[in-house]
DNA sequence: AAAAACTTCAACCGCCGAGGA
DNA sequence: TTCCTCGGCGGTTGAAGTTTT
């Protein structure tokens, strides 16, 4: 019944690869090409699982891979694509020649996520924290009654700084479930108090801007959060931008809207701008050795957050002061902006057609 | 100079859909 | 039709490297 197992997992080498093992894979692939990976260890004389061999090849040994640093253009594209499609790393990586999904994922987790936090932008929703707060204030009608909440926030925030957060990714989505008390400080207050030079505290922030699943209404979330994608990515192969998404990672039952591509890959493959523009930018950079407009035009002060040493790509315009609404869209590359603008248009359309979505008691 | 804290990233894990036996 | 593996994916881990104290 079925096929034999690919390897005896208890009897294969694990851990880092040696140069010798790399050479064996390279020699095998150059002679036989890529085929059945389960046969590779045996034929190449390796005591490794076939799956491990495939991973080593695709993530490290492939000749077309880049091993140098990410360029500002690549950063910008990753951020734009993450905003559009969430943590579909393989799809994002396909728009970045020479990069693997693992590369992109690692770069996002180690660099870009922190950058966005430092800019006061939630890397899950890609909205400025200030906008999330103001949106929430509008919805809950608490804008004139925040004093107690801030005091409560400060108390909780200080106590959280001294203890390790529990699974930050999930806390973004669920948070303390027992209370409807909102621990959402004004972003300026957060930054001045604790976030400027404390990287760990950035990781804590999501606990405060989303403390309960009903705080952020789904219509505010134009894209599926990265934290949700893991559990839903495989079983929910179609993700709709325009579908009301539960912020608690429940599977959406919303029917497909045909005004947009039914698959993200379709969008990425069909959008002539998203990747082509990028590749053109890459070529221009290669020929001129200069940064794109990202770092030259967008040279507004980010000293407030970073000391001015970092390039924040598409988010450089109009966000940092907290007065931004959707103006950051204007700063996107032209290729991405059409798509994102479409999302925002749909969002507005949906709000006008379904005002009940603005009701905080509305439950998906 | 040494220890502690922090960051990076290669590799692993577990899940899923497709398809072979 | 059922069981199983393969290949692919995203999330997580932990060793190695780097920076700070």
From TrEMBL:
Signal peptide per UniProt: none
Biased composition (Polar residues): 290-299
Residue span, HTH myb-type domain: 9-65, 66-116
Keyword Transmembrane helix: no
Regions that span the bilayer: none
Residue segments, region Disordered: 279-325
Superkingdom as given in the UniProt entry: Eukaryota
Every Myb-like domain range: 9-61, 62-112
Main subcellular location: nucleus
Keywords: DNA-binding, Nucleus, Repeat
PANTHER family, alphabetized: F14D16.11-RELATED (PTHR47994)
Protein name: Uncharacterized protein
Species name: Hevea brasiliensis
């Amino acid at each position: 019944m079925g096929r034999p197992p690919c390897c005896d997992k208890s009897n294969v080498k694990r851990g880092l690869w040696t140069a010798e093992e790399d050479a064996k894979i390279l020699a095998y692939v150059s002679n036989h090409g890529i085929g059945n990976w389960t046969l590779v260890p045996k034929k190449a004389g390796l005591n490794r699982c076939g799956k491990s061999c495939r991973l080593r090849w695709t993530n490290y040994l492939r000749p077309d891979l880049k091993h140098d640093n990410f360029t500002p253009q690549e950063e910008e594209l990753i951020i734009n694509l993450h905003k559009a499609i969430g943590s579909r790393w393989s799809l994002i990586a396909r728009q970045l020649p020479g990069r693997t999904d693992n590369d992109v994922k690692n770069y996002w987790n180690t660099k870009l996520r922190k950058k966005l936090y430092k800019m006061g932008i939630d890397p899950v929703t890609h909205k400025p924290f200030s906008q999330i707060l103001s949106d929430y204030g509008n919805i809950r009608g608490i804008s004139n009654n925040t004093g107690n909440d801030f005091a409560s926030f400060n108390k909780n925030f200080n106590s959280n700084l001294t203890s390790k957060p529990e699974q930050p990714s999930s806390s973004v989505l669920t948070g303390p479930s027992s209370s409807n008390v909102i621990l959402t400080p004004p972003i300026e207050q957060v930054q001045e108090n604790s976030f400027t030079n404390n990287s760990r505290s950035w990781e804590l922030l999501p606990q405060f801007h989303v403390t309960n699943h009903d705080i952020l209404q789904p219509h505010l979330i134009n894209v599926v959060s990265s934290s949700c994608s893991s559990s839903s990515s495989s079983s929910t192969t179609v993700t709709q931008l325009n579908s009301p998404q539960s912020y608690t990672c429940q599977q959406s039952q919303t029917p497909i809207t045909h005004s947009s591509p039914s698959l993200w890959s379709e969008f990425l493959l069909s959008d002539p701008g998203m990747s082509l523009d990028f590749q053109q930018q890459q070529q221009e950079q290669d020929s001129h050795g200069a940064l794109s407009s990202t770092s030259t035009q967008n040279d507004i002060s980010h000293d407030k957050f970073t000391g001015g040493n970092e390039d924040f790509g598409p988010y450089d315009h109009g966000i940092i002061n907290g007065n931004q609404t959707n103006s950051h869209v204007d700063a996107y590359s032209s290729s991405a902006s059409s798509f994102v603008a479409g999302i925002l248009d749909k969002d507005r359309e949906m709000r006008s057609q379904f005002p009940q979505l603005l009701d905080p008691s509305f439950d998906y």
